[in-house]
Amino acid sequence: MKDQPVVKPYGSEAGKKAEVEQMFDRIAPRYDLLNRVLSLGIDVWWRKRAIAYLQTAQPAEILDVATGTADVAIQMAKILKPQRIVGIDIANQMLELGRGKIAALGLSDLITLETGDSERLRFEDGSFDAVTVAFGVRNFENLEKGLSEMNRVLRSGGRVVILEFSKPHVFPIKQLYNAYFKYVLPLIGRLTSRDMRAYTYLFESVQAFPEGNQFTEILTKTGFQNPICERLTLGICSIYSATKR
Questions:
Q1: pLDDT at residue 13 greater than cutoff 80
Q2: Are the beta carbons of 57 and 159 closer than 8 angstroms?
Q3: Does domain 16-244 fall into CATH 3.40.50.150?
Q4: From residue 90, how far is each of 94, 215, 245 by CA, in Å?
Q5: Does the pTM of the predicted model rise above 0.85?
Q6: How far apart are the C-alpha atoms of 147 and 150, rounded to whole Å?
């Protein structure tokens, strides 16, 4: 498998991880609003569909990697009723907004948010029944290292569920998608968040991400078994799920 190109938000001499942290801290105040507007609200359904992959297993302890403002953590708390959810992210401004949402919903005893690096998780081996990531794996500086760490902290038989943007391949959806992500979305992002590069990076990072079979092969390589991919909304988004050996 060929090495994937490294795509960074700002193209500075800083590493990808540092740039991603800077980008999300900058757009944090408008992040939730932009998610709803730019996806026409479909992102809420995408998240619920991903969480449904865990309903049969009923995990008691869940790690939500790249939790952002805790949208997935909050929905899992409501739908799955676990005993504990830990959300980690490298962007502190996103976490602060997430903590506010969690407190307002009275979920602070159930959900804990903390600063954390997906490639160096502080948790012991086999700490969680499930690990989730929503729209975060394409931002990893070292994808395989991050996935290997997620595998390490999973208990045997535990499940990983990853939600990520993908690329439609059917005409004319492919052409409309590319035009929207490449031209319209960055303009809206610049007008609302004052950071056009953040939304230009979104398009570029999706183009570079190893989707579909390429990604399920990486899941297998990093210790997972029986990986599956479900494409949603004409291929705009995909859910990947696998279990720990």
A1: no
A2: yes
A3: yes
A4: 9, 23, 28
A5: yes
A6: 5
